[in-house]
């Protein structure tokens, strides 16, 4: 990923590697450019609130922003607006590019940004996140969910990484975020642990419940179509 004009973030073109997970974003989910332009001033404060409730600083040079469907859709709209991309092909390309950030059932997905500190140390940390799982973990009570990179082809020199935490596979339920201590634990170069604020914990619990309902609805619709 890299910075685009106006501060929007972009990923490199998707490179197909192995089996691709089902997409959760479609071009039909987007507003027409004129509609987005008209609604943008009213939507922007609400999206800013969603983002603030999902952002946590892990240490001075590392920030994580948990994503949900609304924040990803907003980002796609903003990229299209800033870049003036309006053709069907361009819209489909951006939708495919950012679909990897939409959380699936039982998952949390996030944008991880290295945004300060020594340049060499920052580069090493960013490359570690991209290359292997286990650099960062989400700790809920006594359960751990490791972060792994979901970028199809991570850029070597980038301060931005997209990651997921498969929380359900570790037995972590939405209610656990409200009833247990929650922290983010960075394991390199030395272990650093940061408590996740209560507002973020509440937002993540809500996201997990919503994602599960959306997945159930998609499965039900597919079953109906097959019958």
Write the layout of secondary structure elements.
Blueprint: E1 2-3, E2 9-10, H1 33-52, E3 55-59, E4 62-67, H2 69-83, H3 88-98, E5 107-114, H4 119-131, E6 136-140, E7 143-149, E8 160-166, H5 176-179, E9 182-186, E10 192-195, H6 198-226
Antiparallel strand pairs: 1-2, 3-4, 4-5, 5-8, 6-7, 6-9, 7-8, 9-10
Describe it:
- Helix 2 (69-83) runs antiparallel to helix 3 (88-98).
- The protein has six helices and ten strands, in the order ββαββααβαβββαββα.
- It starts with a strand and ends with a helix.
- The strands form two sheets. The chain has an eight-stranded antiparallel sheet with strand order 3-4-5-8-7-6-9-10. Strands 1-2 form a two-stranded antiparallel ribbon.
- It has helices at 33-52, 69-83, 88-98, 119-131, 176-179, 198-226, and strands at residues 2-3, 9-10, 55-59, 62-67, 107-114, 136-140, 143-149, 160-166, 182-186, 192-195.
- With 227 residues, the protein is of the alpha+beta class.
- 41% of the residues lie in helices and 22% in strands.
Mean pLDDT: 84
User: Globular, elongated, flat, extended or rod-shaped: what is the shape?
Assistant: globular
Strand-residue proportion: 15-25%
Strand segment tally = 10
Class of secondary structure makeup: alpha+beta
Largest sheet: 8 strands, antiparallel
Strand order of the largest sheet: 3-4-5-8-7-6-9-10
Q: Identify low-pLDDT runs.
A: 1-19
Order of helices and strands: EEHEEHHEHEEEHEEH
DSSP helix fraction: 40-55%
Radius of gyration: 18 Å
Q: Helix segment count?
A: 6
- End-to-end distance, in Å? 41 Å
């Amino acid at each position: 990923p890299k910075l685009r004009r106006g501060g929007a973030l972009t990923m490199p073109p998707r490179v197909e590697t192995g089996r691709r997970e089902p997409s959760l974003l479609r071009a039909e989910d987007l507003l027409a450019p004129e509609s987005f332009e008209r609604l943008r001033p009213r939507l922007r404060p609400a999206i800013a609130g969603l983002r603030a409730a999902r952002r946590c600083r892990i240490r001075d040079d590392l920030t994580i922003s948990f994503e949900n469907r609304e924040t990803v859709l907003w980002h796609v709209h903003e990229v299209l607006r800033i870049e003036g991309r309006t053709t069907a092909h361009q819209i489909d390309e951006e939708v495919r590019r950012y679909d990897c950030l939409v959380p699936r059932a039982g998952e949390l997905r996030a944008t991880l940004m290295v945004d300060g500190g020594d340049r060499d140390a920052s580069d090493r940390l960013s490359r570690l996140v991209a290359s292997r799982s286990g650099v960062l973990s989400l700790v809920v009570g006594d359960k751990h969910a490791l972060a792994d990179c979901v970028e199809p082809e991570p850029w070597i020199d980038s301060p931005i990484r997209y990651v997921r935490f498969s929380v359900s596979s570790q037995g972590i339920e939405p209610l656990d975020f409200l009833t247990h201590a929650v922290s983010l634990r960075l394991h390199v170069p030395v272990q650093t642990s940061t408590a996740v604020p209560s507002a973020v914990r509440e937002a993540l619990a809500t996201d997990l419940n919503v994602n599960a309902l959306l997945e159930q609805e998609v499965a039900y619709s597919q079953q109906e179509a097959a019958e």
